[in-house]
Structure formats: structure tokens, C-alpha cells
Amino acid sequence: QSPYYNLLDAINGRMIEVYYQPIVSLSTGKIVGAEALARWRQSDGTFLSPDMFVPLAEESGLITRLTQLIIEKAFDDLGPWLNCHPEQHISINLYPDDLTSPVLPALIASRLQQWNLSPSQIALELTERSMVDPKSSAQALDAYRKAGHAIYIDDFGTGYSSLSYLQDLDVDLIKIDKSFVDALEFKHLTSHIIGMAKALDLAIVAEGVETDYQREWLNRHGVQYGQGWFYSKALPKGDFINWAENNL
Ligand code: G
Ligand code: G
Ligand code: MN
Ligand code: NA
């Protein structure tokens, strides 16, 4: 069977699972939300990383069905927990094709209503790649923002697009890519990214925080939030709720 049909079967069979990686305040260590991350469990029990199947989903036109499944599972998993914690949010990764789908905003709105949640409890992550053609994204992003969702720019600093989209589009937050957090020789560049975000009044999440040194440096330089193995890996629903309840 071809990889396409394997993926189609996995989506139809709802065999893609969602893990949640906490996003925390760097100054207090307390949880502010989580990112939903797809995991494809194979028949031998191992997980296939999204890097292996999201590109296939994009090329083969399955991405929006995958995103829809992730959104449905995220609400099934964490709807009750989000209802108990109105200040917490979940961020969902969207790809360029997702932005033209009328299905996704309707799905999010109906699930928010079902669980009596605020739109601010769902944030949307877009990679800089989605900003290569800002005009085609602008309408969808505006609609999501008007509906009350925050827009995050994912993998910030690794894209190929001009940064002018930051002026033109209403973005709320940038996620500084892990490569900047990893590499000490990029410190100079990283402090400029932080300065630019501040000038544009954007909040910042640092990705891939693995050490207390990184946490301390980022916090001292004004980065508000972090995500990474220093705090927690992405966790399945039960383990995530457990972690979150201990870090509220
Ligand atoms: O899960 P992992 O840590 O390996 O994530 C790798 C990348 O795959 C993430 O940075 C994210 O951009 C992408 N990714 C993870 N989950 C999803 C998802 O549910 N949908 C989409 N479109 N991309 C995802
Ligand atoms: O594409 P996106 O950056 O949204 O997803 C985050 C990715 O980075 C996930 O695949 C996640 O498993 C991975 N990740 C998150 N935190 C860490 C970390 O501290 N160290 C490493 N090596 N990878 C991480
Ligand atoms: Mn992401
Ligand atoms: Na990222």
C-alpha cells in the first residue's frame, strides 16, 4: 500500500494521536497553555514524527483533514480541562492550505460553544512559510483574529519570507525557533530578534528550552514564555493534565 493510502487510512481510522507540550511563564515556571502536536502510532507501537507525515499530508491534499482530526481530538481530550481553567489555552498548528478552509473556523467555533470556552483559549500557529504570500493569508488571519483567537508565528527566524508581514498582519506572538535557543553563538542575533519583537509589541515563546542557563538568559532578556524539555516533553492527555495540575 502506498504512503498516501496509509495516511488516509490513519486519518479515517483516527489513529493519529495528539500530545501536548506545556508552554510556561519563564519567570514563574507556571503553565500558561500547551501546543497540540500530532503523533502517528505505528502497528509496532512506535510513533512516527510529524516531520515524516505532515509534508506528505500537505502534498497530497490531506492536510486539512489531518488538522480537523487534531482539533477534534484536542477538544475531546482537553475541553473539560480548559473549561475548568479559562486562563489556559491550546495552540493548534495550521498550514497554508488550512487557511482557505471554511470547515476549520466553523469546527472551532462549535467546539468552543460545546465546552463553553472563550476563543482566547485556542491560538493558531503558522510558520513563516505561510507568510510568503501574506495577501492570501491576510483574510483568513483577520477572520480568526476577529473571532478572538491569537495568532502565533512558529519557527520564527527560519523562514524565507520578508519580515514586512509583521507590519501588515495582526500577529500576537512569535515563537523563536529552537536553533536560536540552542546555539550560544547566536546570542547576538537572538537579542536582536527579541528587541524587534518588543518594538512591534509582540509576545515571545522560546522553543526548545533544555537548560536552566537558557531559561535564565531568555528570561533576563525579556522573553516571557518558554517551551521545551527543561519543563516537559509533549505528553499524552492524562500525563499532560497531571503535569499541568502540578504547575498551575
Ligand atoms: O512533534 P514534533 O515535536 O516532532 O513536531 C515537529 C513539527 O511538526 C512541529 O514543530 C510542527 O510544526 C509540526 N506539527 C506537529 N504537530 C502538527 C499538527 O498537528 N499539524 C501540523 N500541520 N503540523 C504539526
Ligand atoms: O514545529 P514545532 O516547533 O511547532 O514543534 C516543536 C517541536 O520541537 C516538536 O517536534 C517537539 O517535540 C520539539 N521539541 C520541543 N521541545 C524540545 C526540546 O527542548 N528539545 C528538543 N530537542 N526538541 C524539542
Ligand atoms: Mn508549532
Ligand atoms: Na516550531
Automatic annotation (TrEMBL):
On the tree of life, the source organism's domain of life is Bacteria
List where in the cell it is found. Cell membrane
Q: Signal peptide span per the entry? A: none
Q: Which residues form the EAL domain?
A: 1-248
Coiled coil ranges (UniProt) are none
Name of the protein in its database record: cyclic-guanylate-specific phosphodiesterase
**Organism source for this protein?**
Enterobacter lignolyticus (strain SCF1)
Q: Which residues of the full protein are shown?
A: 269 to 516 of 519
